[in-house]
Amino acid sequence: MPGKEIKGRSKRANYRHGGRIKAADGLWANIHAKRERIKQGSGEKMRKPGSKGAPTAKALKDSQT
Hints:
The protein has 3 helices and no strands. By secondary structure, the protein is mostly helical. It has one domain.
């Protein structure tokens, strides 16, 4: 079920099936999960680069390596 962790699944499996992502999973995992939620019609929007609360270019680059 989207948005709910399922007992017995790994974090990665929950992530693939719309489960919750924790801050410890990393910035890139959080961005990917949000894109999936948006694609499914959550009504959320991605923040514009440079806006308050948006990740910096350095943070994005560091998260992808």
